[in-house]
Amino acid sequence: MSTPFYVSPQQAMADRAEYARKGIARGRSVVVLQYADGVVFVAENPSRALHKVSEIYDRIAFAAVGKYNEFENLRIGGVRYADLRGYTYDRADVTARGLANVYAQTLGSIFSSAAEKPYEVELIVAEVGNAPEDDQIYRLPHDGSIVDEHGSVAVGGNADQISSYLDQRHRDGMTLGEALKLAVESLSRDNNGGERTLAADQLEVATLDRTRPQQRKFKRILGRQLSRLLEENGTAASDDAADDASDSEGTSGSEGGSGTS
Fold first, then answer.
1. Minimal CA–CA distance to 144: which of 122, 125, 163?
2. pLDDT tens track for 112-146
3. What is the C-alpha to C-alpha distance for residues 30 and 184, in angstroms, rounded to an integer?
4. How far is CA 102 from CA 55, 69, 111, 125, in A?
């Protein structure tokens, strides 16, 4: 009888983590940013039927990357948890922090169990508050840990590069158009530093808008509204570039053409 091959617990956990990270990295990225009136979710997703961003409850939304069947099961479980808690207690008792804790327990149990493979998913749970400082964004990696994020966060694909790009350019008080433009710019960058063009039909965009008068703050931005926002910001960026070019031409002319190219 052969002796079973021994693998240390540390090595087993490292192998499971590497397996999950590789699966998550194959997914297209999702970016979440705070702006003046709420939180905007932008995902590269050409499908109009399989959503990566969804509503959970009145002020709470969910975004995910990785295996669709796995994060869809988690989304459905989150909706059931929120509905039951809101019905049993009060709607105000349903919070992003409570939902993140439930997801963390589920992901952590699956990751540490040797009986099944780890989930190849990474989640974002966000809640919009009455003021920007009350907004909550939580990122949940495959192992069930919880990371409290502020300002901007990216998951999936080349998330590290996108996060670095966002950290350098995101600022408080951005308009929806400015935040959307920044999100699309970050998603358009590839691993080699080049840029792609992402059209409106390749994007899934939704917001948690605190200014909406109804109790439910989640709203998808689709079709002509999304195209208009992208075009308006693209035109504004072109106008700014043209103004900068004309200013530099004027300066070089006044200095006898000594400007550098």
1. 122
2. 887 789 999 999 999 999 999 999 999 999 999 99
3. 10
4. 17, 18, 14, 11
Cβ neighbours of residue 98 closer than 8 Å, sequence gap 6 or more: 85
Which parts of the chain sit beneath pLDDT 70? 1-4, 191-194, 233-261
223: left (phi over 0), alpha (psi -120 to 50) or beta: left
Which helix H or strand E contains 139, and what residues bound it?
A: strand 136-140
For tokens 């709203």, the residue is 219
The secondary structure of residue 128, as a DSSP letter, is -
Provide the token pair at 152.
């901007």
CB-count burial class (<10 Å; 0-12, 13-18, 19+) for 121: buried
Q: Which amino acid is residue 244, in one-letter code?
A: D
DSSP lists the bridge partners of residue 154 as 31
Paired tokens of 47: 């499908």
- CA atoms of 101 and 145, how far apart (whole Å): 9
Q: 54 forms bridges with which residues in the sheet?
A: 62
Q: What are the start-end ranges of the E strands in 36-129?
A: 38-44, 53-57, 60-66, 121-127
Paired with 39 in beta bridges are 34, 208
User: What is the per-residue pLDDT across 81-99, written as a single tens digit (0 to 9) for each?
Assistant: 999 999 999 999 999 999 9
- For residue 160, the one-letter residue type is D
Q: What distance in Å separates the CA atoms of residue 218 and residue 68, rounded to the nearest whole number?
A: 21
CA dihedral (26, 179, 225, 79) in degrees, to 10, reads 60
Closest of 21, 29, 23 to residue 143, by C-alpha = 21
